Amino acid sequence: MSVQSDFSLSVNQIASERGIDIKEVLEATSDAIAAAYRREYNIPEEDDIKVKMDSENGGYQLYVNGKEIISKDFGRIASQTARQVILQKVNEAERDTLMEQYKDKIGTIALGIVQRFDGQNIIVEVGKILAILPPEEQIYGELLKPGSKIKVYLKEIQENPVGVKRLVVSRSSDLVIKSLFENEIPEIASKTVEIKGIAREAGSRTKVAVFSDSPGIDPIGACVGQRGIRIMAMTNELGNEKIDIIQYDPDIEKFIKNALSPSKPSKIILDRDAKEAKVIIPDDQLSLAIGKEGQNVRLAAKLTEYKIDIESENPETHTDKVEKNVENSETDTKKTDKKVKKKTTDKK
Fold first, then answer.
1. Given this structure, which CATH class describes domain 109-170?
2. DSSP assigned state of 149
3. Same CATH fold assignment for domains 183-248 and 252-348
4. Tell me, what DSSP letter sits at residue 165?
5. Which one of 81, 168, 195, 308 has the largest count of C-beta atoms within 10 Å of its C-beta?
6. What global pTM score does this model have?
7. Closest Cα partner for 96 from 28, 23, 22, 159?
8. What is the pLDDT of residues 4-27, one digit of tens each?
9. Which of 119, 211, 116, 111 lies closest to 171, judged by CA?
């Protein structure tokens, strides 16, 4: 015999409003009825309760240990239990449906609104979903407040051991730069200008190598824009992070020279097999080549994928300074990680 309850009549409406499959709502309703009946009549946990839903008329059949039960309306407490179970199940189904929609958007930039801080994590509303911006994906030194509008890179969808999915977004990834360039610069989007490499220390400085083989196209000019409007828009979006546009060259010697801009090396000695370069710099440009705390040469090394050793034209005078600042031009990732941890701890 089929018995109809008040909440089962709204199944189709819930599915329509939440944009989820009717089967998921029916499954949630079945679980709710079983939980409510068990609570109302103090059914032991070891007893098997099954509910068979009728999708045509919203009714159901209730079985306890295989025996059909003709039930009366449940009491207020049992009804509340049923309502809570339905809402929980429907919310989970709605979240999973939204996550499926965002699978196709992974790898793109989206506009988000900062909602709140959860420990070191920042919760960002992206469309209809709440995404997580973990500390390692945040820009060092950037101060965000609830209500702040930011562009985030949709990095991945993670699933924890109990099956709960979450969208992870990033502000510090190199791919944020790539996506911003594709959005802001038509020549990049149309592939008239190519991005050949990105070296970034988020929140501080980025070097982007660009190239074009199209006649009459200046890849650097296209990225900078008239009066610097294009590069300025991206810099503002990233909290005034400095972005250097570098001319890519297939000749590695020329590429290294360009990457060490704004300094102008006088000579480069290459070891192509070891991917190492000894760069001779005029005395008055040593500081430019090395950069603050070795940042310029470090980013140049990452961009060119060559180990770069800076040497002065007058090594007797400047040896100590070079050794102190360069340190083989390797990217100091541990130092950056410490800065991120300190920032999030201070914020908390």
1. mainly beta
2. E
3. yes
4. E
5. 308
6. 0.68
7. 159
8. 445 445 656 666 666 666 677 777
9. 111
